[in-house]
Amino acid sequence: MSKTQVNMTVNGNAVSALAEPRTLLIHFLREEMNLTGAHIGCETSHCGACTVDLNGKSVKSCTVFVGQAQGAEITTIEGIAQEDGTLHPVQEAFREHHGLQCGFCTPGMITRAWRLLQENPKPTEEEIRYGISGNLCRCTGYQNIVTAIQAAAADLSIKEAAE
Amino acid sequence: MISAAFDYHRPGTLGEAIGLLTEHDGTAVVIAGGHSLIPMMKLRMATPEHLVDIQDIAELSGIAVSSDMIEIGATVTQSDLIASDELFSVCPILRETSLQTADPQIRNLGTIGGNVANGDPGNDMPAIMQLLDADYILQGTGGTRTVKARTFYEAAFFTAREEGEILTSIRIPTPPFGHGHSYQKQKRKVGDYATAAAGVILTRSAGTCTSASVALTNVADTPLWAEAAAKALLGSDLGAEAIGEAVDAARAITEPASDGRGPADYRTHVAGIMVQRAIQTAISRVA
Question: How does pLDDT run across B105-148, given as a tens digit for each residue?
């Protein structure tokens, strides 16, 4: 039950650290990698505050043992803005459209929305609501989150057309 | 919410995985997506000393569809299953059911094998596998054997699988072309287990029901294949009287617990409504 070597790619950087097998991915990211953006909310796979991207899919990092993510590509909220600090259109839209109040759910919500818009670049309102159904928000009533994701989808599609 | 300590193993072949289960007999548990097991481990309701992660075993991850048989590997995730248009074209109830299970993140990791093998009466796929008369393929040191989904479930979390065995795949007889289907699930919120749920498939020819199958989720210790309910439909005109008989027959076999999802009587009542809606929806979809 000793510590084992864990290797993965986090936000484009190869990382390596010793961890006990029972370490959850969220604890590894927050405590070993000092990436405290993804939050521990319910820690029971309900709330989605711990959502990160694992090999191109949204997952709840409170319900993944670190060994399961051995060799994986992980993206957290810290990896979504550009390196110079320019916000991603999803982040910009959340700011612009008041898609948050207390902000606790926001890292998970944005990480999920960011992936959702890659899976489905032009979602309907219903598809957005269904797509973020694994992320709970206790402040906003979701309306402004949905509005923000709609705005981000429009912005991304304009940017894509311009390229 | 930290689990007890364990050693983690990630074998590349089925033989190695079975070897690990045998070597650590009684103290090793298979992990696939982990979305049933890890919550149990955090609560220390499960305290395995060894976890055998089967995600790298390539032969467990395929979907194969032919005119008479569908085979789904144990580590196919709910998301993989939803994404398969080939599977959807021959057996659409699988996608319909997965879309009502858990939430997007959980479906990205949760596997079909874990869903059916865990024996949790709240899981949706066991009833669907009973509905479709699926076979589960189990492999252990003694070789391979097949157990019908309809006889696999003994009690909540107790199944016909032996500790040293791995459920490797599910085989489903391809349902008849043009069948009608529906899975109706009443739940309190996204991601919740069913208060009650029902699946139906049926075929119709010249106004008469020529085949039918009905199964229920989370209204007993095990999934329930509602044989008498199907018999009430078979040979009928699928009119109100036959539907009423099927609903009564399905309700009669329920034994739900009284819990946060409601008192037992209520859940039996909801099961009846789910059966009725599933039959009506299946009829509306039949060719």
Answer: 999 999 999 999 999 999 999 999 999 999 999 999 999 999 99
Half-sphere exposure of B271 (CA within 13 A, CB side): 33
Candidate from A22, A54, A131 with C-beta closest to B3 = A22
Q: How many CB pairs under 8 A join A and B?
A: 85
For chain A, how many structural domains are there in total? 2
Question: Is B26 in contact with A68 (CB distance < 8 Å)?
Answer: no
Q: What CA–CA distance (Å, rounded) separates B121 from B93?
A: 19
Please write the tens of the pLDDT for every residue from A5-59.
Answer: 999 999 999 999 999 999 999 999 999 999 999 999 999 999 999 999 999 999 9
CA distance B192 to chain A (A): 9
**Tally of CA atoms within 13 A in the half-sphere of A56 that contains its CB:** 3
C-alpha–C-alpha distance, residues A133 and B81, integer Å: 19
Which residues of chain A make contact with B39, given a CB cutoff of 8 A?
A: 44-45, 63
Domain interval for residue B17: 7-53
What CATH number is associated with residue A10? 3.10.20.30
* Domain presence at residue B200: yes
The CATH number covering residue B16 comes to 3.30.43.10
| Domain-ending residue, one of B121, B141, B173 | B173
Regarding an ipTM greater than 0.90, the answer is yes
Nearest chain A residue to B9 by CA distance is: A67
- Specify the number of domains making up chain B: 3
| Shortest distance, CA A137 to any CA of chain B (angstroms) | 13
- Residue A72 and residue A100 in one domain: no
Q: A99 and A59: one domain? A: no
CATH number for position B255? 3.30.390.50
